[in-house]
Amino acid sequence: MTIVGNGLELTTVHMVPPDMLIKRLSEQLKRTPQITPQTWTQYVKTGSHRERPPQDKDWWYTRSASLLRKLYLHGPLGLADLETEYGGPKRVKFGQFHQRDAGQAAIRKPLQQLEAAGLVEKKGLQGRIVSSKGMSLLDKLSSEIFIELKKENPALSRYG
């Protein structure tokens, strides 16, 4: 690994655990003024396959961070792709489970807010991708997390 000008190592999203990155990114997005939960988010389910609304009161920021990470890894992605990705199984009467897509608003609105913040941009009809600003934010957070992980586990120093 090479050292970048600010002293952080060049690390990508692929090199850190997803749960740590999403948690840290959601904390970062809470401080972004363009990303705010809608008024309906405390009452709504995230899809027809769910029985109850999310129990985490900050689920909007977690969803936004997860969307940003998914677009980084698999972009460009459209709304239909993300609905399938965030959907899940639902039992229909006594039969087998059927795939149900997630709710559109719980994906579309965070994407629009991420666009307003300049972290995501549209790529024609192909869908949305992470902008250069969003990519640098994710890489910076990944570098910070990887440095912390190396302090906890010195064996990781051979990878960077």
Describe the model:
Helix content is 44%, strand content 9%. With 160 residues, the protein is mainly alpha-helical. It has a single domain, classed as Arc Repressor Mutant, subunit A. The strands form 2 sheets. It has a two-stranded antiparallel ribbon with strand order 1-2. Strands 3-4 form a two-stranded antiparallel ribbon. Helix 2 crosses helix 4 (105-116).
CATH fold-level name: Arc Repressor Mutant, subunit A
How many distinct beta strands? 4
Oligomer: single chain
Report low-confidence residues grouped into runs of 5 or more: 1-5
CATH class division: Mainly Alpha
Contiguous helical run count:
5
**Rg from Cα:** 17 Å
Gross CATH architecture: Orthogonal Bundle
Number of self-contained structural domains: 1
Q: What portion of residues belong to β-strands? A: 5-15%
Helical amount among residues, as a percent range?
40-55%
Shape: globular
Q: Going across the major beta sheet, what is the strand order?
A: 1-2
Quote the average pLDDT. 86
For this structure, what is the CATH homologous superfamily? Winged helix-like DNA-binding domain superfamily/Winged helix DNA-binding domain
SSE order, one letter for each helix or strand: HHHEEHEEH
Largest sheet: 2 strands, antiparallel
| Backbone structural class | mainly alpha
**First and last CA, distance:** 5 Å
